[in-house]
Specification:
Layout (H helix, E strand, L loop, with lengths): L1 H21 L3 H5 L6 H16 L1 H31 L2 H39 L1 H6 L3 H53 L3 E2 L4 E2 L2 H20 L1 H21 L21 E8 L10 E8 L4 E4 L7 H8 L7 E6 L2 E2 L5 H5 L2 E4 L10 H6 L7 H10 L3 H6 L17 H14 L4 E5 L7 H18 L3 E5 L3 H4 L4
Parallel strand pairs: 5-10, 8-9, 9-10
Antiparallel strand pairs: 1-2, 3-4, 3-6, 6-7
Helix pairs in contact: 1-3, 1-9, 3-5, 3-9, 4-8, 4-9, 5-7, 5-9, 7-8, 13-15
Length: 472
């Protein structure tokens, strides 16, 4: 029953953990290694499951055995039993030190394993780049360095466990010595045993001693289970630090306004730096209005704040000072999920998921029909190569869109944005991987969509003159 309950609880906990991770703001991801998160979710929740499963049943069993031992000891001679309880603090000291050392070592081992798993995942996700540069050996060496940290953490954990276990057994044998010394004095001085109405005999000493020892050893037998619970507590703290963390930018704020976009966006005296780099200001007193229904091109050198500007429009971050206004309203007062549903965004490096073309497009509009998907693909000049693939829109794109070329991935990403029929379109070098023919076709589709929707505010980050020339 306990195992069944723990499995059910931890299945729900994994879902909750992932949900809370996905709901954190972008600044949080800048300060954690997100590649470790998938391994952390699995490892931490599994350790929690071990701690809340049959371990509690074993602890309950041990406490019942402990009470039974004490009952026998007090029945055979309650006065001596009280004296023998002096071994309790000795043994408890050993057990507490052992448990605390195990808990501390577990946390350090978990961190080391998470780092190594995160690095391996990074290398595997970019395997083509690794192979193209012939850097397999470099990745092996780097991974070996991470494994060396894991080994070091394991050695430290083993040594600490060994010393703490040795100290525990030292406490056990010290308890033996104490008990037999006390028993010898009671027999020699003929202390009266009120239960038996005679002096204590050697048999009484052994019965009381082993009753108390049996009770305490039953508690000691619960040590591994208690250790598992302590490990689960450490894993639980790490997990619930994330689960209980309120995101600084909430997607579904109950007090926020469900605002239907018109498309007027204005920056007022905005100051901004990334939380992970507070010493590097990106924007200083930046003010600008992106006019409703017009196209604004942002051009500048790398690192000048172009992508930062559109990330503030998407509200991936909040400005450190100043305001971002949407149709005259402070962006912080608008329901973020509803707001983002009205924005189409295509980045310089399009992200596709390891599923079908259709499922990737449905990320933009989950209730879209096949006809709407086909229309969006035609508008972005992607229908030709999609229709030519086995399976059409139901064909797989591979991990990260690896089965498509760079231009094909970008056109799929553009179609995903068009499918939403947004009020605001953001292109961050969105046509950089397209040839002149496809770029012209996509530009026509953008112009056509603006006509169909009536008024679309477009923000373009670009370096090509052909893209900037169309800007208002």
């Amino acid at each position: 029953m306990l195992m069944s309950a723990s499995a059910s609880i931890c299945a729900k906990l994994k879902t909750l953990y992932l949900e809370k991770v996905l709901n954190q703001e972008s600044a949080w991801y800048d300060q954690v290694n997100y590649l470790e998160l998938s391994s952390r979710i699995g490892k931490e929740v599994d350790q929690i499951q071990q701690g809340i499963g049959n371990k509690y049943g074993q602890i309950l069993y041990a406490f019942c055995m402990c009470i039974s031992g004490f009952v026998v000891a007090f029945v055979k001679g309650w006065t001596l039993a009280f004296a023998m309880l002096g071994i309790g603090p000795i043994m408890m000291t050993g057990m507490i030190i052992f448990a605390s050392v195990m808990q501390k070592r577990t946390i350090s081992s978990m961190r080391a394993y998470g780092q190594s798993a995160g690095y391996a995942e990074q290398a595997l996700s970019a395997i083509r780049i690794v192979v193209s540069f012939g850097q397999e050996e470099l990745e092996n060496r780097n991974y070996s360095r991470f494994l060396a940290r894991v080994t070091e953490a394991g050695i430290k954990s083993g040594c600490a466990t060994g010393f703490s276990m040795g100290f525990f057994f030292f406490c056990v044998y010290l308890a033996y010595g104490y008990s037999f010394a006390v028993g010898a004095v009671w027999v020699d001085k003929e202390f009266p045993n009120s239960v038996e109405d005679r002096p204590y005999l050697a048999g009484d000493i052994l019965a009381v001693f082993f009753g108390v020892l049996f009770g305490l050893f039953s508690l000691g037998g619960a040590g591994p289970s208690i250790t598992a619970v302590n490990v689960a507590k450490a894993a639980g703290k790490s997990a619930f630090d994330v689960i209980d963390r309120p995101p600084m930018i909430k997607q579904d704020d109950k007090d926020a306004v469900m605002h239907t976009l018109k498309g007027q966006i204005e920056f007022k005296d905005v100051d901004f730096f990334y939380p992970s780099r507070p010493d590097q200001p990106i924007l200083r007193k930046f003010s600008h209005a992106f006019e409703e229904g017009k196209t604004t091109a942002i051009v500048g050198p790398s690192g000048s704040g172009k992508s930062t500007t559109v990330q503030l429009v998407e509200r991936f971050y909040d400005p450190n000072a100043g305001q971002v206004l949407v149709d005259g309203k402070d962006l912080k007062s608008i329901n973020l999920r509803f707001y983002r549903q009205q924005i189409g965004y295509v980045g310089q490096e399009p992200v596709l998921f390891n599923t079908t073309i259709k499922q990737n497009l449905l990320m933009g509009k989950p209730d879209a029909t096949d006809a709407e998907i086909e229309e969006a693909l035609k508008k972005t000049n992607a229908w030709g190569f999609v229709n030519a693939r086995d399976g059409g829109i139901n064909s797989q794109v591979g991990a990260g869109g690896g089965q498509l070329s760079g231009g094909q991935k970008q056109r799929i990403a553009l179609a995903r944005a068009f499918l939403k029929k947004p009020r605001v379109l953001i292109f961050d070098e969105a046509t950089s991987a397209l040839d002149k023919v496809n770029e012209a076709e996509v530009q026509k589709a953008i112009d056509q969509m603006k006509v169909e929707l009536g008024s679309v505010t477009t923000i373009v980050i670009a370096h090509r003159l052909s893209t900037v020339r169309k800007a208002d």
